[in-house]
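INFO batch 0412 | record 1 of 1 | parsing
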Amino acid sequence: MHDSVKSEGALARRSLLGGLGALVALSGESAARAEEPAPAGGPLSNVPIVLPKTEFAYEAKVELDQGFLKIGKGPLGERTLVPITGGKFAGPKIQGTVLSGGADRQLVREDGALLLNALYEMKTDDGAILTVNNRALVTKGADGSPYAFSQMDIIAPVGPHDWLNHRVFVGNFVFQPGKPWVLIRAYSLI
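INFO prediction complete | emitting tokens
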């Protein structure tokens, strides 16, 4: 039995090394391109740029308490806490409610840009609790139009929604001062 375990370990190591060798051979062409001089004003290499694609994950209408709490000015700007009171979300694979109890921590920087860090939970229709940490930047684009994008970490329990634990999410949103909600669209990078 000891010899068979030893032989299985050697076979696994050979398979791993063989797979790594194939990967190195495949990347050799990319490495050769990377060593070629890059065109002026472009990327540092000649390796083709492949832009990430996105897939719509869900849209959430997150309800906000209008009695927000001004925390005061800190070294980076004015701080405010906005309680999350509920809401709904829906997408092709999930839907449910936004739970009350979370909050959106807002920081207005000296240059006028708004940094948001919302931490809250959402409950799917089948009872799974998702934790969302949504960090956003709201400012003006080069043409003066609003720029409002976020990076989202979503943690789901193991089970039917485990796919959320294996994706990078980005979002955009509509935030209207004076409205008791914010509309958030989440996209998975694929």
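INFO post-check: The chain has a mean pLDDT of 85.
INFO record closed
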